[in-house]
Design goal:
Radius of gyration: 22 Å
Distance between the termini: 48 Å
Largest sheet: 5 strands, antiparallel
Order of helices and strands: EHHEEHEHEHEHEHEHEHEHEHHHE
Shape: globular
Structural class: alpha+beta
């Protein structure tokens, strides 16, 4: 029995059934089913039945009200990138008191999962070679609930490859690298850098050595190599440059920012894009190395997963 006299059995469930959610939102069930696909309403399927987290429904209602009650926050989760991280930090420092701007570099797939759960507002992604980015990014998004209401904004093209300890240079190919039997630091399976590295190894017809540790972020992987915990790790030229590492280029990839269509027009998102196009941000990208900012700010034509 709780302090207010309510027993655990009487407490409302945190999950609503279709009938309960329809009543809660004053909708009929047919409309609610349509909104699962068309409006990104938060829902999950368990043993064939839809359930609606009550708290996420409340958040969804708030954000849908007159452009979003939560317009004073921008939560970004997904791929790690030094240039993006520094730009977000500068924007956060200039923001008004009470405005929350945060960046969680948790990897492409985890970021998209958080976006689908409406736990994040935007997600930076990279998934394979730049020349195939439009198709592969769109296919990747289709795996996530609500993605038909997302858009992709292009940020940059980046050099992707392997970050190397300075004791390994010069190395010009993966075959040359692996012949030296390096200690490899890997990224998680949902990270775009690990995906690119795995594809590059497969294309070369070689097997990477067993990794000794897994880094949570690309910059952590760079730090681990720089500090001697390993000899090499998948990553970008920018991350290698940030930690004064050597770099083996494997190709170019597209860094895109995914978000709900409604978020694209919010002031904080537009301020972030303005920060990224600033002279300071462009100078930073040049100093880090490995960036081509020509696509910055463009919407991909099929950015939604419809």
């Amino acid at each position: 029995m709780s302090a207010d006299g309510e027993s655990p059995q009487d407490a409302p469930s945190p999950y609503l059934t279709v009938r309960e959610a329809a009543a809660y939102l004053h909708l009929n069930e047919k409309t609610l089913y349509a909104m699962i696909q068309d409006s990104g309403i938060p829902a999950t399927k368990v043993t064939g039945k839809w359930l609606f987290p009550r708290k996420l429904l409340d958040d969804w209602l708030l954000e849908s009200t007159h452009g979003g009650v939560l317009a004073d926050r921008l939560l970004i989760a997904g791929s790690d990138d030094p240039w993006l991280a520094h730009s977000i930090a500068r924007l956060a420092q200039r923001a008004d008191d009470g405005t929350l701007i945060a960046y969680s570099p948790c990897g492409t797939r985890k970021g998209l999962a958080l976006l689908a759960q409406r736990r994040a507002n935007a997600c930076p992604i990279h998934w394979g070679e730049a020349q195939h980015a439009t198709r592969r990014h769109a296919l990747l998004l289709r795996e996530y609930t609500g993605s038909s209401n997302w858009v992709m904004v292009q940020l940059a093209l980046r050099e992707q490859g392997v970050m190397l300890s300075r004791t390994l240079a010069p190395v010009t190919t993966l075959q040359d690298l692996f012949a030296r039997q390096p200690v490899l630091i890997q990224r998680g399976p949902g990270a775009g850098s690990q995906h690119f590295f795995t594809q590059a190894c497969a294309a070369a017809g070689i097997t990477a050595p067993e990794a000794v540790q897994t880094a949570a972020t690309e910059r952590e992987a760079a730090f681990m190599v720089a500090s001697g915990a390993g000899d090499c790790a998948p990553g970008t030229r920018a991350a290698a440059g940030e930690f004064n590492l050597h770099f083996l280029p494997l190709g170019s990839e597209a860094l895109d920012l995914v978000m709900p269509r409604t978020l694209y027009f919010r002031a904080l998102l537009q301020q972030l894009l303005a920060e990224l196009t600033s002279d300071d941000s462009r100078d930073l990208a040049e100093r880090l190395g490995g960036y081509d900012l020509a696509p910055l700010g463009r919407l991909r034509s099929d950015g939604g997963a419809a």
